[in-house]
Automatic annotation (TrEMBL):
Name this polypeptide is given: Flagellar motor switch protein FliM
Stored Gene3D superfamilies: CheC-like, SpoA-like
Any one annotated GO CC term: bacterial-type flagellum basal body
Record localization: Bacterial flagellum basal body; Cell membrane
Bilayer topology: Peripheral membrane protein
Taxonomic source organism: Jonesia denitrificans (strain ATCC 14870 / DSM 20603 / BCRC 15368 / CIP 55.134 / JCM 11481 / NBRC 15587 / NCTC 10816 / Prevot 55134) (Listeria denitrificans)
Region of interest (Disordered), residue spans: 1-23
Keywords in alphabetical order: Bacterial flagellum, Cell membrane, Cell projection, Chemotaxis, Cilium, Flagellar rotation, Flagellum, Membrane
Length: 308
């Protein structure tokens, strides 16, 4: 490693340390993260094109980062009043969120109504019925592009379910469930703001995992699996196990055990002509008749009937 490489690594490590809960790891496989990032970047480019066309002003959108957190942690990062677009994304109809700051929403509405894009000095408020219809029409065309952007992950047919303005009142997924959050930088005209898009982690990661599982293994992988199975089978043949021979058991009372003495006879409910059970780890694997082999007691196997 050169001196320049060392200085670069040090620059990457700057900043406050991040908390990590080892009891609940929130990590994404590198290959999965890259696939989702590419889908989010593709959507950002298409979304920017739609905004430029509808608002009649130059717009650009860039993906800042993709992270996995719990839904509760994500909600805690949002402003008390913001525009939340709830929509169903994938075939499982799980709820996703698109969050846009309230002042950015009003700026876009000003452009849609033919204004110069003035930022009004007013307290955040909910949209009127007319403003909601205009804003939903703008988002409908933008979210439609999500079908192409995420086609490499899972089929999508986004449908807007509604708008909300207080994050604390929105329960899209359980509070402790893992979610994927894409953080975007929005530039419309000369105004810069931020937006986020949230999906349930399973909605995007499970199709990727299933796709990997369905992939046909190569010839080398199949040979490796065969060799591993054969080694396991051979090693199992040498595992020591305890074998026992048993009569049929009987039930007695505790006083019978306490009063037991040398010379007592315990009558077993086992016919003299009936073979004994050959048992391994509590399971009957066969039957046999008692005998001797030299000076040692032995059992001659009569059948190898196994318990189901």
């Amino acid at each position: 490693m050169t001196a320049s490489d060392t200085s670069t690594a040090r620059r990457h490590r700057k900043g406050p340390p991040e908390r990590y809960d080892f009891r609940r790891p929130m990590t994404i496989a590198r290959e999965h993260a890259r696939i989702v990032e590419m889908a989010c970047e593709t959507f950002a480019r298409q979304w920017a094109t739609q905004l430029t066309s509808r608002l009649r002003v130059m717009a650009s959108i860039e993906l800042d980062k993709l992270e996995m957190v719990t839904y509760d942690e994500y909600i805690a990062t949002l402003d008390p009043h913001t525009t939340l677009v709830l929509f169903t994304a994938d075939e499982t109809r799980s709820t996703a969120l698109l969050q846009i700051p309230s002042n950015t929403t009003m700026l876009w509405l000003d452009y849609l109504l033919g204004g110069p894009g003035l930022e009004r000095q007013e307290n955040p408020r909910e949209l009127t019925e007319i403003e909601t219809a205009l804003f939903r029409s703008l988002l409908d065309s933008s979210l439609a592009d999500m079908r192409y952007a995420f086609s490499s992950i899972t089929p999508m047919n986004p449908k807007i379910r509604g708008l909300q303005y207080n994050p604390q009142f929105v329960q899209a997924v359980p509070a402790s469930e893992a979610v994927l959050v894409a953080n975007y930088s929005l530039t419309v005209g000369d105004r810069v703001s931020a937006a986020t898009m949230m999906f349930a982690a399973d909605a995007l990661l499970n199709p990727l995992k299933v796709g990997e599982g369905e992939a046909d293994p190569s010839a080398a992988q199949r040979e490796e699996q065969r060799v591993s199975f054969e080694r396991l089978r051979l090693s199992m043949n040498d595992v020591p196990v305890d074998v026992g021979v048993r009569f049929n058991s009987i039930t007695v009372r505790p006083r019978d055990i306490i009063d037991m003495a040398v010379g007592d006879v315990i009558e077993l409910r086992h016919a003299a002509s009936k073979p004994l059970r050959i048992v391994v780890e509590g399971r009957t694997i066969g039957h046999g008749v008692p005998g001797n082999n030299g000076k040692q007691l032995a059992v001659k196997v009569t059948d190898t009937h196994r318990e189901s």
